[in-house]
Design the sequence.
């Protein structure tokens, strides 16, 4: 079974721009969660989507948003990029929203200049 | 903010040695998981724990869900060079709307 895939793997953007990241979960997994990983703050939960609905949300500003499609694929959008948004963005999938065994993709490395 | 204290921050050991690391919190967790992350990759799930007192093994790895539900331990026996990486604990905080809360990680270096 194929694992979680994320595209693109690397991205360089300029302050003020917006960016969209994509995640395809493991086949049969319907929950997708997004995390931000930085050296200073570690892994921080952004939000979770299940059945095209946001189920849980971390403590991030409204510039961070996401959505999920009917095939469980998810996208994350960051608007008005700031230098501090430079991070590894990880997507993780699980079977349902009530399942906590999450399987991570390789991440998208975003650099904001 | 961060509610999981993971220690030690880093470890340097010789091949063949056993390793112990732990996560503690002042809050109660319903689920504990342990992940390993290699450079440039996403975390890989090693062990999941669902009940207080539960002890689970995965090869040379053994993890325990603390009886108070506020801590968890991971032991690696007879370490080998490929054990090098960052180990993270993660938990589902009781009453939280966060999917998982992560510790800051333990960087393990194994000298052959």
Sequence:
């Amino acid at each position: 079974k194929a694992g979680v895939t994320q595209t693109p793997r690397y991205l360089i953007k300029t302050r003020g721009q917006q960016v969209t990241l994509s995640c395809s979960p493991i086949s049969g997994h319907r929950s997708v969660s997004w995390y931000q990983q930085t050296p200073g703050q570690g892994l921080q939960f952004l939000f979770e989507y299940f059945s095209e609905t946001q189920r849980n949300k971390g403590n991030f500003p409204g510039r961070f948003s996401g959505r999920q499609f009917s095939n469980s694929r998810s996208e994350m959008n960051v608007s008005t990029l700031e230098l501090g948004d430079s991070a590894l963005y990880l997507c993780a999938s699980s079977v349902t929203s009530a399942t906590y065994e999450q399987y991570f993709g390789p991440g998208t490395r975003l650099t904001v200049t | 903010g961060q509610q999981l204290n993971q220690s030690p921050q880093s470890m340097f050991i010789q091949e063949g040695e056993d390793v112990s690391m732990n996560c503690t919190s002042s809050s109660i967790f319903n689920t504990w998981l342990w992940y390993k992350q290699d450079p440039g990759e996403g975390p890989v799930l090693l062990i999941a724990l669902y009940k207080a007192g539960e002890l689970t093994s995965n090869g040379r790895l053994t993890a325990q869900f603390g009886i108070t539900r506020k801590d968890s331990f991971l032991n690696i026996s007879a370490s080998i060079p490929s054990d090098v990486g960052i180990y993270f604990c993660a938990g589902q905080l009781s009453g939280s709307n966060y999917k998982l809360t992560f510790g800051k990680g333990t960087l393990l270096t194994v000298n052959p």
